[in-house]
Structures are given as C-alpha cells and as structure tokens.
Specification:
Length: about 300
C-alpha cells in the first residue's frame, strides 16, 4: 500500500488554505508552486479503482470503489450474508451506494440485498429483468418499492456512467431466459490498461455468444457460477486469458464447486488462482497500468494434467 506524506508544516498549511479558498501571504507564496505540484502529484498517484470480492460464502458480492469516489455493489450474497455485506461497506466508509447491480434473482445473489436496502441508501438499481417466484424475490421487489429506489432493466451494450475514467459495460443480459443463470448480467470494467470481467452465473451457451461479439481479454476474471462445470468452457477461458481468477464459494458447499476441470483449465494457462473460501475478502487495487491483489493465490493441490477441452 502506497502512502504519501507531506514533508513539513508549511506544505500542510498550504493545502489547508487551498481547500478553504484562502489566499496566502507573500513569504509562503515562494514555495507555493512546488507544494502544489507535490500535492497534485500525490493526488494523481492515489487514483485507484478498487474491486472487493466480499467473502459471502456460497454466493457473490462485489464492491467497487471508483477513482472519483463513486461506489457500486454487484450482488449481495444470500440472506445470511446481508449483515456481513453492510458491515463490510460501512467499514470501507460507505454511507450510500451510487449503483447497485442485481445480476439475476437467485437467492445467493439477491438475498443479502434485503439487509442492504434496509440499512443503506441506494441511489439507483440495475436489474436483469428476470422474474422469479421465491419469497426472497418478492421481498426484494417490496423493498425496492418501499424505499423508492430508481429501478432500470439492463440492456446489452449499455455503459454505466459512474466515472469518466472507467468504462463499465453490460456484455450480456437476457430477461427472457427460461432459467435464472442464463439471464445473468455480465459486466466488463475497464480502467486504463486493466480489464475486469464479472461473469455472475452465466452459462456456456452465453459464453459462446460473448466470444463471437466481444474482445473478452481481461487481466482479472471473476469465475462464472462459483467454478461450475456449466460455465467456464475451455474456449471461454482461452478467450479471456486472465492473469488472475477469483472463485467465490463456500468450502463446505453441496455442489462440488469449483469443479476440478474448471480449476485445471485456468491453472493450465498460467492463471493465478484466488478464492474467497481460502482467503476471505479479496481486494484488487488497480491503477491505469497495473494492479495489486491483496491476497495470496492458492494451490489447487492437484496436477492439472493435459489441457482440458
């Protein structure tokens, strides 16, 4: 973590005066230009995009802080995860969420929103438009209405306007899908030279469409559907070619996530593997040229063998 310190009291005083709009006396003005340059350089260096993969056990929740200070929450885990998500956001100093994205109505993605909507102000909400019949989904809609949260259905190709330096693009959504997972919103977040692909629970059929329509190459991949065999095909993994991949799942899940062949596909191409089950919360700090992942990659514990088709 990079920290910036001001070298003397005069610099600190100057910054305070500049913030207050107070002009400085003549003696102090001699060093003003140098101190302003130092201050602006420090501020520029601190412009980071932060992507937080919150450990919500068997589910997804991703908090993003943009360089300009705007915030976005993509999913919120299940009902039990709601308190953890709210506590995590408050610990980060978040008092309001500028943009919520609800990728699809499965409980392990929207359940935690019941707590989030109750405890935090949400400026606007982007939804997949896919409906569901569960009590959790009904309560989710009720809270949106109760708190009068501005609500829009995502459209493929749209861009979310949160920070002029960061592109957030919807690569896929399908409100007409027969099942929930294929309806998932897929987002690509781009800042400078670094791309982050957030795949939610999209499936292999959608992956084929994405390969045909977009340049999917991304430095960081949020592995689809917790590492399920219904997603993360070899063709998709090759198209993304990530340097790092994050799995979000519970160690004790009943679904066998992540499946070995998905782990092997990523491991084989040299991707560094990260897991909320192994590391807990995972924070990625991104500037325009590189990134730092504040967690240790994990060893899958097996020889991945030949390339998986």
């Amino acid at each position: 973590m990079r920290c910036h310190f001001y070298k003397n009291r005069a610099a600190c005083l100057l910054i305070l005066l500049l913030c207050l709009g107070i002009s400085t006396a003549e003696p102090l003005a001699l060093g003003t230009a140098a101190y302003q340059d130092d201050f602006l350089e420090a501020a520029e260096e601190e412009q980071h995009l932060e992507v937080h993969f919150i450990d919500v056990e068997q589910g997804d929740s991703i908090y993003i802080k943009f360089p300009n200070g705007k915030t976005m929450l993509v999913d919120a885990g299940d009902r039990n995860a709601g308190k953890k998500v709210v506590q995590y956001l408050k610990k980060q100093g978040v008092t309001a969420i500028d943009q919520v994205v609800s990728t699809h109505p499965d409980i392990d993605h929207i359940g935690g929103f019941l707590e989030v909507f109750t405890k935090m102000h949400v400026t606007r909400l982007l939804d997949s438009g896919k409906t569901h019949t569960t009590n959790t989904y009904a309560e989710y809609l009720k809270l949106i209405a109760l708190h009068q949260i501005p609500f829009k259905v995502a459209e493929e190709g749209q861009k979310l306007q949160l920070d002029p330096d960061v592109e957030v693009k919807v690569l896929h959504v399908d409100r007409e899908a027969e099942e929930n997972n294929p309806a998932s919103i897929v987002l690509k977040v781009s800042y400078g030279e670094i791309d982050v692909l957030l795949t939610s629970d999209t499936d292999e059929k959608n992956e084929k469409k994405l390969i045909k329509r977009y340049d999917l190459r991304s430095e960081i991949l949020k592995v689809a559907h917790h590492g399920s065999a219904t997603s993360n095909s070899q063709a998709f993994v090759d198209a993304v070619n990530p340097e790092a991949a994050v799995f979000s799942y519970d160690q004790a899940n009943d679904y066998g996530h992540p499946v070995n062949k998905v782990v092997a596909r990523l491991y084989h191409i040299g991707t560094a593997l990260y897991s909320t089950a192994e590391s807990g919360d995972i924070v990625v700090s991104i500037d325009k040229e590189g990134y730092e992942i504040k967690a240790d990659p994990y060893d899958p514990g097996f020889d991945p063998g030949p390339k998986q088709e």
